[in-house]
Design goal:
Elements: E1 2-9, H1 15-30, E2 35-42, E3 49-56, H2 59-71, E4 85-90
Antiparallel strand pairs: 1-3, 1-4, 2-3
Length: 93
């Protein structure tokens, strides 16, 4: 089991659009084979910072998720401010 964290800072003024777009994506990701969690968060300290907590059966399922986002036409580049921070963890207990 892989746990994936993605931290995204969006451009000022894009917060509502980003939230609306990603809220619509959440149920679609939950339906992906190999997805065990896809939880969308917003920072309590910075309204431009969002975080996804995700769990997948394995790397293949995570790769399929990334391909699925492209198939859905999710292109967030115009809303993102800076690089996405990505972290992958192995579930231990």
């Amino acid at each position: 089991m892989l746990t994936f964290l993605a931290k995204i800072t969006v451009k000022s003024g894009s917060e509502a659009e980003f939230e609306r777009t990603m809220r619509a994506v959440v149920p679609k990701v939950h339906a992906e084979p190999g997805n065990h969690a896809y939880i969308f968060h917003r920072s309590a300290d910075n309204p431009r910072m969002f975080m996804f907590y995700e769990q997948y059966t394995d790397q293949s399922a995570l790769d399929a998720h990334r391909a699925h986002l492209k198939e859905l036409g999710i292109n967030l580049a115009s809303m993102i401010d800076g690089p996405i921070v990505r972290e992958i963890y192995d579930l231990l207990a």
